[in-house]
Predict the 3D structure of the following.
Amino acid sequence: MSYPTYPGGYMYPNETLIWLPIIVTYIVFISIASGSAIMLSLGVLFDKSILRRMVPLFLMMSIATALVYLLGPLADLRRPDRAPYIFLYPHVIPSEMYPGISIISFMATIMWPLLIILLFILGYLVLFRGMWNSIVSKILALLLIVVGLVWSTYFAPLLFTTLPLLALYNFIPLLPAESFLEAIALSSSLALLALLIHYRSQEKSSAKFLSQVILACSLVFITLRLFQVFRLYAYLTGSPEALIFIEVFSNMNIIVLILAAISSILAFYTYIKGYNILTILLALLTLIWVFTDRWLFAINIQSISKTALAVVPYSLDLASWALESIAMAFLALFVYYVLYAWIVREPLIKAVGEVK
């Protein structure tokens, strides 16, 4: 079969079917939910840690975003009326007629309910039953960490399996690790902002710890990304596919690195000075950094043709994306408010000796 051609390669029939920008919002929400789940699990596992005091906050953040983030791919569907079929007939068991499994079905029908269930059960056991040191709570916390790790790195296998550009993995093999670091940094920065809003000022011990976490994650992220850039330019630039990838990748990647560097500087000064305005700027810059990087790989990379030999121009409905994203954000905030006002009520567990 022959296909229409354009300079640099063939155009396949599904060439112009790309993810809509709402997928970026979806992946950012995944980062918040998975990063918060991992942080609260660590608080359950380690006794007398500062993380334990923040378990209620991370629990509310994770539940609020996890409950709504599937609205992202739902808004991206060209046939939303068929969305229930992914739950009614999930392709998670290989068969002779349908070999392999659907990673999207697996995540939607198994890993997403598992995340929600673990969050509710673990939150109930430790916050309402006080079972911090029980073996059941420890096992559930470990399982939640595994689920959080799968979700925080899910974007990479989603990219590599959804787009038939498997050669991309040769260029960015450390993308799963970078996604994990971004998830932890983003959830920590938003936790800082949430504590500032709740208490009208920084809670010193929590602010120092979270700023350290953000600083460490941003510095490691920058190191990994620079290593990948060096590897890309030094060893992989001989092929036309690599040149096309660099063309699409380079400019926005520079912006990502600059934003990550500024976030690390703000995290350092937040740790040293503790000014409220620094906390706000740190949370916003970290969100923009993670969002930009998600946009780079979820949207920009799709402009590379399926042959990886040319760049295909495309247009996006940014107005619809903005409205859909705002709706998801407000819905998550509403869930967070319900959890805070009616169920959890305190974002921080009282410190020993603190007057209630």
Summary: The longest strand covers residues 5-6.
